[in-house]
Design goal:
CATH topology of the largest domain: Jelly Rolls
Structural class: alpha+beta
Order of helices and strands: HEHEHHEEHEEEEHEEEEEEH
Largest sheet: 8 strands, antiparallel
Strand content: 25-35%
CATH superfamily of the largest domain: q2cbj1_9rhob like domain
Bound molecules: 2-oxoglutaric acid
Oligomer: single chain
């Protein structure tokens, strides 16, 4: 049985086993109606409040598609929402019981925001360890309002990306559009999709007159280090139980295997990235304006 359409109250041991198998096979699972409208009300309002609070556009914002990132660092309500037992119980059989939250974002996809082309989230964060995206619909998400479209099974191999401005796009983006496996996932507020950081996804045009909203939390196993994230680190779960606490250090930061595995990313983040940005700025300021 698939996790599609299941409400938490009905999860049985065989549902859980099927959910784990489905994630392995497809790279995602869906929990319909995990959160009721009354459970969603304050969370939606909190996520949407960042629209007014934000000073300036974030680099990944594109047209009327806006990202409000790292909101867990600013909002206790968001932290508590992400660490709810119901959510941890849903994801832990797949993710493992010990998790930290590296990044999160509320996404508003406004009318005429264009497409957000095929990519994997690992294409953005460049982490060598596959990790987990918890996508929560904050509003109705449909084909015509730029809802989420995925390629089931695409997580089984790493996708190569090319950079386009501040974004990355799969090098084979055009072929994914005609991939027979392509699947739109319609969702209502309170539906949750857990997907792999290696899963190809895209959102098409929002041709309606209102914004579609979602919240995305990116979780890593507690043993997996990310050298691009500064402390404090937010622990979402320990031993399969909600943790909901900041810590100053992660033990995995001193694990020699993790240090070796993430060294290229650390060098890129600390040395190569800043150097390229400085060279670009220098080149720009030395180029005469026409
Ligand atoms: O628009 C969304 O709901 C998700 C955006 C997206 O593709 C991403 O955050 O990687």
């Amino acid at each position: 049985m698939s996790a599609e359409g299941l409400a938490p109250a009905t999860w049985t041991a065989s549902d859980v086993a099927a959910r784990v198998r489905q994630f392995e096979q497809d790279g995602f699972v869906v929990a319909r109606g995990m959160f009721s409208p009354s459970e969603m009300r304050d969370f939606i309002a909190e996520c949407q409040s960042f629209e007014g609070r934000s000073n300036g556009r974030e680099p990944n914002s594109k047209g009327s598609m806006q990202f409000y990132s790292q909101i867990f660092r600013k909002s206790e309500l968001v932290r508590r929402f992400v660490c709810q037992r119901k959510l941890i119980d849903f994801i832990a059989p797949i993710t493992g019981p010990d998790l930290w939250l590296r990044w999160d974002q509320a996404v508003a996809k406004g009318p005429d925001s264009g497409v957000f082309d095929w990519h994997t989230d690992a294409g953005y964060d460049l982490l060598p360890q596959p990790h987990f995206e918890v996508w929560i619909a904050l509003s109705e998400s449909r084909h015509n309002n730029g809802g989420l479209c995925v390629i089931p099974g695409s997580h089984k191999q790493r996708t190569r990306h090319r950079r386009v401005g501040t974004h990355v796009i799969s090098v084979d983006a055009a072929s994914h559009d005609v991939d027979g496996r392509k699947q739109f996932i319609e969702a209502d507020a309170g539906d949750v999709i857990l997907f792999s950081s290696l899963l190809l996804h895209k959102t098409y045009e929002n041709t309606t007159t209102s914004s579609r909203w979602a919240y995305v939390a990116e979780l890593l196993k507690l043993g997996d280090f990310d050298p691009t994230i500064a402390p404090p680190y937010f622990i979402a779960a320990r031993n399969g139980q909600p943790a909901c606490e900041f810590v100053d250090r992660l033990a995995c930061a001193r694990d020699p295997r993790q240090i070796a595995l993430t060294l290229p990313l650390a060098i890129r983040h600390r040395v190569a990235g800043p150097l390229v940005r400085r060279l670009r700025a220098a080149f720009k300021s030395s180029t005469p304006t026409p």
